[in-house]
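It would be a great kindness if you could assist me with a short task in structural biology. The matter concerns a single protein, recorded as an amino acid sequence and a row of backbone structure tokens. Could you please explain, in whatever detail you think fit, how the structure tokens follow from the sequence? Thank you for your consideration; the sequence and its tokens are set out here:
___
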Amino acid sequence: MPQATASPHFSAPRYYAFDALRTMALLSVVVFHCAFSYVTLPLGETWSFKDEQTHFFFDLLILLLHQFQMPIFFVLSGFFGAMLVERRGIRGFWTNRWKRIAVPLIVGWIVLFPLTRLATSATLSALNLPSIELKISLIHLWFLYQLILFYGLSTAIIYWMGRSKRGVEALNRFQTGFGRLLKMRSRLVIFALFSLLPLFLSTNGLQETTSSFTPPFHILLANWILFLFGWLLYSQRASLEENFPQRSLLDVTLVLLICTPFYLWAITRISPDLPIIVRLTKPSFWCVVITGSLIMWGFVFGLLSVALRAFNRPIGVLRYLADASFWVYLVHLPLTVYLPGVVAASNIGAPLKFTFVLSVTMAVALFTYHFAVRPTIIGRFLNGKSVSPAAD
């Protein structure tokens, strides 16, 4: 169990596999937002505009990325959060999280929200769409905001229960029970059951996100379940490869192959405008909730298993991208909002427009990271160290 005080003699190994997986998930957010302008599906308030040229491929891409990127984020954030508490204690944990999460959230929002508002106005004008006022929100930084809430809850529980022998014993029993669940063949189904309640409370049966400063309870609950899974997973760190054996990939593959067709069939038959009581009478809603939860946890178990086998070693390019990915995540949104307007008048097709937006966004974000962030005080805040570009 992570302790309330630091463990000075504790030396944690480097979790290269999870570093790589977190990096890929962060960078996939850029792909996710670049694709929004070219989907055929109605977006409502999720995205303020859509190009005249769209493609069904981007609908599938959005649905695919949505099923795993945020769940993996929260699982890995819980895992590394527990590791930090173990290494530094609660006070050291919060010193680190203030620098690495709270400061980027505050400063990033002050800078990026106005830029995103300006980019939205420019793109709406380029697409000949009526101007709208972007509501005050956390934009894409909502993830950092919810992390701080979960960190607060987790460390409060550890501090409170760690004050008594009975509380410590209860935490240890909880972790032991989690370890037993993790070794069961039916674990994917069991953890999928935990996610059913928040999905039933959602508007369309999907894992929802919100950029609101006051997130709905069911969204917090859905993300907290994933975060807690990652936090508890750290208690099983000594047997990670044993808990994610290669044979489990067959189970995951079967679940994905069986559930995905039903999921895609049902998702097109849901009306989010129906009251929840009415939605619960619709077989398509139940189908989306059940298959969506199984697919989400299938991706969680599958990606963790693949990462532990393919990336559990130092890889130079991935290490660099791991350092750069947080900066890329922070600054990408205004670019993914503005650049679709730059190519809006071109008749080159949605795939080429998407490629342009993604390429320019990544190029600008990585260029600014390498020369303006990595060797400066900003890099020390984001990565905990400063590196000269010449060192790369």
The CA atoms of residues 26 and 382 lie 14 Å apart. Confidence is low (pLDDT under 50) at residues 386-392. The chain has one domain: 16-391.
